[in-house]
Amino acid sequence: GKARRMVGSISDIHERKLRELELVQARLLLQDAIDSVDGGLVMFDADDRLVLANGRYRDIYGFEAQDLLPGTYLLDITRDYYSRHPEHLKGMSLDEMMALRRARHRGPERAWEMNLGERWFQVNDRVLGDGSVISLRTDITALKTPDIARLGIAY
To answer: How high is the pLDDT of residue 4?
Structure first.
C-alpha cells in the first residue's frame, strides 16, 4: 500500500534544551556552593526525609555519600550514627537520645550545642515555610576548649 495520509509535527526544542542545560548548570553551581560551606549543612523535608547534605556534614558524622541518600529519614540517620558510636550517647539510652534529637529538630530552641567525642558543634536548626528544616553544624571546639580546661569538665 500507499500512504494516504501522514500526520506529524515539527517543533523547535532548542529553547527547551537551553533551559534544561541552564538548570543543570544552576544545580551544579548550587551544589558547589553548598559543599564550600565550612560547616556541616543538611536539609530535611517536611516529613524529615533527607534532601541534601554537604561533605562537611558527612565528615562530622563519619558517613559516606551512599549512607546519606535523599529520602533517608532523619531518625534512621541518627539511629545509625549512635549505633556505631554509643560512646557519644553520654549515658542515655538510644531511645532517649532519639527522643531528644527528635525534640530538638523541630523544637523552639534554634541553636544548641552538641558534643561528639573531642569535638563540640553549635547546631542551628531553622524550620522553613514549607516545613522543611535546614541545619548548620559549626565546629566550636576552639571556643569551648578554654572553658572546659578552666572548669575541669571532662569530655
So the answer is: 74
